[in-house]
Specification:
The structure holds two protein chains of two kinds. Chain A is α+β, with helices and mostly antiparallel strands. Helix content of chain A is 32%, strand content 22%. By secondary structure, chain B is mostly helical. Helices cover 71% and strands 0% of the residues of chain B. Classes of the chains: A alpha+beta, B mainly alpha. At the A-B interface, α1, α3 and β2 of A face α2, α3, α4, α5 and α6 of B.
């Protein structure tokens, strides 16, 4: 293994330090497995124990939980896009056939897992066929309940990618299109 | 730091479970291991911490079998790489509920400039396979043969993924309007 320190990427190694408390947690895990034995003198261990108890009481009194990890995951800063899935008239799903819907959903899940494996952030859900549609009328808010038609949204996915071009490229591969459905790709707007 | 120092410390941990010796090993090697984990996970501090934790536990469990045919750091890094690889594979099997997406947080994060991507962000944005090979080869200095062995792929695959990763990075880092 070699390493070129002139490589500009080498500078990256100087950044980021292990979080505080990691050493203690690893050491404790190794102790729990019998792989380490404490080598501190007995009086120091006792002193630490007394100190820990005092600290626990103090933290309890101030309402702070002991043992809570304060790890803040790095935020995924890539833009998010929503894929809204519509059936349309040409969609080939026959809901009267047992297993047809499950087969579609399995195919969509596989598509999402494939993206995840490539590092694309992806989440999604199918929507139920029923809806309560609410309208404001002079008589007040009216609610109509029933099954949705074929022009309704079937489900959605949210993807996190580098840019809009990548989002479009990914949306083009969605199996929903092969089944005759159509997709609206919408950037998720940032708040000011 | 010398290999002899590492040998003495490893012996103390293996033979006596010496905690102070382990602490010294930890202090020497963990910063590099953690940074490796951080890059392999695309910058997720929580994942990197878990991976570093798991890698150390596995490594100490097998420390008595280490034969010193490579540097200790290299051997320890292999645990980090395998743990990260396993985590990726596990993530593929786990459906992520949409409720986990915090829209407010996302929007806050998206407030920054889209046009300006720094190197860390560009690396984090690579697909998992590309990122792992790129980090191991171009940042950590592993050879394609070593990467192939660690990730269970062919050396040729490592080379092609590196080439594609570099192309993708170049595209991400090009100033707007200069892409061809």
């Amino acid at each position: 293994m070699s390493h070129d320190t002139n490589d500009p990427l080498h500078v990256l190694e100087r950044e980021a330090v292990p979080p505080r408390g990691l050493k203690g947690r690893i050491t404790q895990s190794l102790r729990d497995r019998g792989l380490l034995r404490s080598t501190r003198p007995g009086w120091r261990r006792m002193g630490r124990t007394v100190g820990a108890i005092a600290a626990a009481i103090l933290l309890f009194a101030t309402g702070v939980g002991i043992g809570r990890r304060s790890v803040t995951p790095a935020r995924d800063t890539r833009p998010s896009y929503m894929l809204l899935l519509y059936e349309g008239r040409d969609f080939d799903l026959d809901r009267s056939r047992p297993g047809d819907l499950a087969a579609h959903e399995a195919e969509y899940d596989a598509w999402a897992r494939g993206l995840k494996a490539r590092g694309v952030g992806v989440q999604g859900r199918a929507l139920a066929l029923t809806a309560h549609v609410l309208h404001n009328t002079p008589q007040g808010v009216q609610v109509e309940s029933g099954d949705v038609g074929r022009d309704a949204i079937d489900g959605f996915f949210i993807i996190r990618v580098s840019d809009e071009a990548e989002a479009v490229a990914i949306a083009r591969t969605h199996p929903h299109l092969r089944h005759g459905g159509w997709i609206a790709l919408r950037p998720i707007k940032q708040t000011s | 730091m010398t290999t002899d120092d590492d040998r003495l410390l490893v012996d103390a941990v293996v033979q006596r479970g010496d905690e102070r010796a382990f602490t010294s090993l930890y202090d020497r090697h963990t910063p590099a291991l953690y940074r490796l984990a951080l890059r392999l996970t695309g910058g997720s501090a929580a994942d990197a911490e878990d991976i570093t934790h798991e890698a150390w536990v596995r490594a100490v469990e097998r420390l008595g079998t280490f034969e010193w045919r490579a540097a200790l750091r290299t051997w320890l890094s292999s645990f980090v790489i395998r743990c990260a690889h396993e985590r990726d594979r596990a993530a593929m099997r786990t459906a992520e509920p949409v409720e986990d997406l915090a829209f407010g947080t996302d929007d806050q994060a998206l407030r920054g400039s889209y046009a300006r991507l720094d190197l860390e962000r560009a690396i984090a944005g690579l697909a998992n396979g590309f990122r792992q090979v790129f980090v191991l080869h171009d940042v950590q200095g592993y050879t394609h043969e070593e990467i192939a062995d660690l990730l269970g792929i062919e050396p040729g695959t490592s080379k092609s993924q590196l080439s594609r990763a570099r192309r993708a990075l170049r595209r991400k880092l090009e100033p707007p309007g200069e892409s061809t």
